[in-house]
Amino acid sequence: MTGSSLDSEITRSDKYSILLPTYNERENLPIIIWLIINYLDGSGIDYEVVIIDDGSPDGTLDVAKQLQKIYGSYRIVLRPREKKLGLGTAYIHGIKHATGNYIIIMDADLSHHPKFIPQFIEKQKSKDYDIVTGTRYVGGGGVYGWDFKRKLISRGANFITQLLLRPGVSDLTGSFRLIIQERCTTEVG
Asked: Which ranges carry the Glycosyltransferase 2-like domain (predicted)?
């Protein structure tokens, strides 16, 4: 993205904290971290990756510590918890430890591709949106590696939500979002 319109819109004070909650992600974590670094280093985007591991028994935290040694503690921030406490509280925990003025939440299971992060940032900057959310159900969206049952549950939950609440958002069950940090702390704090 160097030399793009994105470079001119990101200010020196903009920092993005990418929250990665993990539970038994020892195989996926090195891949998702490599992808994040591959797509963001050299882009002019200042970022950190906050890994919130919920006591994974498979050694995910050990892998995260190795990644921190490779990429540096300024880039990979570890904020583990003792046991599995749930995705929502993992995001809250990560937000409390994030140093960026923007929060990006995504899954570590490779269901969200980091190549879209610059597009999220560009979209947010275009109209100063409070939230930018990824979707599996519009345009080029989709899922990878899901079985039929998981797809059916996601589609069904989104259909019912659309029918009852009419939120005007195509994918409420996804967790790939960019949020302005001050909006998070207002809600969480």
From this structure: 17-181
